[in-house]
């Protein structure tokens, strides 16, 4: 081990530093000399950011840049589902946050549906499904062709139901404003905004397979002597049909930027608005 400087020598050195010889303070020596000597004998202090701390800041910045969206780890369809659930009421879904404001948002058990109103709902719904299926068939964007013949199509089923009502002596009405307005909106979106269009595609088909089925069953009990319409029947196993479409939607969304995905999610509220106006026809 290297020897330490004796305390007495250290004290002597300290005194010499504090009290320089008179020769060093002589008027013959300028201030420049003293400044130079001082800069040599007193080390300069610097402040450095430790490399470890700098790494923490960098990691935090990266983490913020990689913000995870609810459901993102399971695929984009799960993100859409999460947003959609928030727009339900508590009675409609346990994840719902929306307050009940419209008649159709009340529990179905409190509804007072009419046959005429239900016919309007079915007619307008058919117009919307005719429009969706026609757009997918035409495919103004190549990605739409992924959603042909999924087994979720409803137009042909609705045609059978309307024919049944006609056989029962009911007059089939013309499509009304809610259905016409929504169909036109879907046509416009499909030509210029594929992300927004596919948001509506997802919400229309998936909502009907869940809450729509429950509504159909309750309404049939109230006014149709429990008649099960074709609208609520699928050829094949519905869970598997839905899973196939989920996979296709996730595949298409993989090529979207985060901004395009967010734009799709933001369209959910408009989808609910238009569908809600059609659903309200049941109570008219």
Automatic annotation (TrEMBL):
Compartments reported by the entry: Plastid, Chloroplast
Main location: plastid
Chain spans, region Disordered: 1-30
Enzyme class: oxidoreductase
The entry's keywords: Chloroplast, Heme, Iron, Metal-binding, Oxidoreductase, Photosynthesis, Plastid, Transit peptide
InterPro entries named in the record: Haem_Oase, Haem_Oase-like, Haem_Oase-like_multi-hlx, Haem_Oase_decyc_pln
Family affiliation: Belongs to the heme oxygenase family.
Entry protein name: heme oxygenase (biliverdin-producing)
Organism placement in taxonomy: Eukaryota, Viridiplantae, Streptophyta, Embryophyta, Tracheophyta
